[in-house]
Amino acid sequence: MFDSLTEKLEAAFKKLLGQGTLTEDNIREALKEVRRALLEADVNYKVTKDFIDEVQKEAVGAATLPSVDPGQQVVKVVHEKLVKLLGETAVDIVLSDPPPAVIMVCGLQGSGKTTLCAKLGLRYKKRNKKVLLVAADPYRPAAIQQLQTLGRQIDIAVFDLGQARPQDICREAVAKAKKEFVDLVILDTAGRLHIDDELMAELADIKKLVDPKEILLVADAMTGQDAVNVARQFHERLQVTGVVLSKLDGDARGGAALSIRAVTGCPIKLAGIGEKLSDLEPFHPDRLASRILGMGDIVSFVEKAQASVDMAEAEKLEKKLRKQQFTLEDMYDQLQSLKKMGPLESLLEMIPGVGKALKGAAIDPRGIGRVEAMIQSMTVEERRNPQIINGSRRKRIADGSGTTVQDINRLLKQFGEMQKMLKNMNRFKFKGLPKDALPF
Ligand SMILES: Nc1nc2c(ncn2[C@@H]2O[C@H](COP(=O)(O)OP(=O)(O)O)[C@@H](O)[C@H]2O)c(=O)[nH]1
Ligand SMILES: [Mg+2]
Question: Which CATH architecture group holds 101-283?
Fold first, then answer.
């Protein structure tokens, strides 16, 4: 699955791995190859562009963990973005109570609808659900037979009304299911070679009549962007609740899988990975991303390094805060990491109480540069004990940093307020905690 994409991505990253430092330029160079690989895998053009832009933005600031090779960091960023592209978390089928729940399966001819109906039937039969399969494709006699054959294989009842109208077939099937205490009704609707209005109108009718809990669109992963366009049109017309990617076991290039979620906004819920009726899997964005990237080791290594650095830094800072030893030096370090994390306001606003408390303070990103310059012009002693910064020291620091004494005064005042606020936050945070919960 996606072998060629994986190979090309690996080749692109080889150039980054093992390089001491990464510059914006060599990241861009490597991402050019990633971009080409995605487009060759038939990933949607706009999706590819947005993906590369996001990775570039984040990768440039990311190369900072001491124990991690910068190239590995970039791999990690790409992995994160792939997971996001694929939908972040697995989303399961939802069945309603009270029964019967109705799942409506739709898609183009040959996409794998009938097969999916039987696969779903088997899945829920194993979970002790009473299932009814419904042959709602009256246009091709062979379609009814196909479902009957599959139903026999897995010993699940199949409802049909021969060549009756699909709307009538579905309505009667659901009525029968209610009478017979069926848990789950699965509608195998008719497909077409291409989307047409008549088909869509018929499916919309059925949706209105039986109020399905899930409307699953089967998208053939082998057909790349075509599958994405089909999914978009079905979704626009029917508000599909989930996409099922079929034939992911074949030599699909990856385009459909990687674009469909971003283009339709509809979660991929299941993946068909073979012709056998047991070949159905929940769709896990993170697992597929790791498979596509083929660099699982690096990703988990960086995750661990990140977690341990974050933890160590956070602990160090927290200790200082608790002991009220937060100095201008620490403030300087914090500014450095804040700068890496992006827009300052949005970040600060995420910390409860801080957003409001800092409103109006100098948190404009251009201001950070000045603050940095001022702290850089101080001696180590001054940074650690700001109270020694008297008038003549203020003048010296202002001259050294190209600022004014007023600027220095403002910084020291703000720093004092920050310390006060942190003290308050400490009190607030630890109030009510049992004494032995604190490590000091
Ligand atoms: N390899 C593979 N083949 C599949 C999968 N799902 C369906 N098929 C095959 O695709 C063909 C069309 O499937 P079918 O269910 O009849 O499609 P329908 O016309 O949408 O009902 C059949 O030969 C199936 O065996 C899958 O996940 N993997
Ligand atoms: Mg069929």
Answer: 3-Layer(aba) Sandwich (3.40)
